Amino acid sequence: MADHDLSPPPRPEACELCGRAAPLTRHHLIPRSLHGKARYRRRFDRVERLTAILWVCHACHKHLHAVLSERELAEHYRSRGALMAHPQIQTFVAWLSTKPAGFRPKKRAARRR
């Protein structure tokens, strides 16, 4: 398999969730901690596991992982649309999108259990 098949999507100018021009990180839509588990290896091929990525700012990335578990992310939130449909994510992103690029939220959301 050629290396270019495993390339992440190109880095956009702004966060794919809040739209702010801030430093971006890769959010794996199928969390890397689950890539080796048989259940996810059967459901998603290697290319999908490695290239299903959203480029998000640090604040959005922290919030995603504070609100949703790795399994919830892999099972139900494998796309931008699915993430934006989650009420806590939607509310946070709407609020954060009004803040300047350098803004960092002070308090982390409690993980929903």
Automatic annotation (TrEMBL):
Highest taxon of the lineage: Bacteria
Name the UniProt record assigns to this protein: HNH endonuclease
Biological source species: Halomonas gemina
